Amino acid sequence: MLGERLASMLDYNVSQLCGPKCTELKVRDAVRRFTWEPRTLLQQIVTVYLNLSSEKFAECIANDERSYTPEVFSMVLSRLRANSIAPVNEIERLKNLADMTERIWKQKAQKEEDFGDDFPDDFRDPVMNTLMTDPVILPSGHKMDRKHIMRHLLSSQTDPFTRQPLNENQLIAGISVYEFTRTEQIR
Hints:
Elements: H1 2-18, H2 30-34, H3 38-52, H4 55-62, H5 70-82, H6 88-115, E1 135-137, E2 143-145, H7 146-155, E3 172-173, H8 177-186
Antiparallel strand pairs: 1-2, 1-3
Helix pairs in contact: 1-3, 1-4, 1-5, 3-6, 4-6, 5-6
């Protein structure tokens, strides 16, 4: 859970610094007025990525449906090379992490594509509109993917649908589309 939150935060910041909208960040005399040094910030973010670099963290990055795209990582690598922001060995290590993350992201996308839109809405997360991999049932009867409700519970201990108090112990495991199709194939 913490890994996914950290990956989301890093992905969001890196997409703002190097993504398609990065040109909107221009500020006159930013260093003097705000101590704003985007190159230094990017280097620090890259250092965090590299310190956490692992298969598990790559999975956390790939699961970030809001900010992660392989294109943003490609833009980061290009910017690092073009502006000599990081040493070559760090850029190479980040490229390895980016490749591992993209592979996991593509596998996840393929898995969702294999199911297509042919599965009932009961298997879609109502908040993110994605295929639930670990569904849970809330006391209100609503279903959500565990990772999304857990992220919500970190900031608000309430049911997002009813605003009633809610904690992790009240969540009941549901059946995922993967388990459902497996049991249907056995029948």
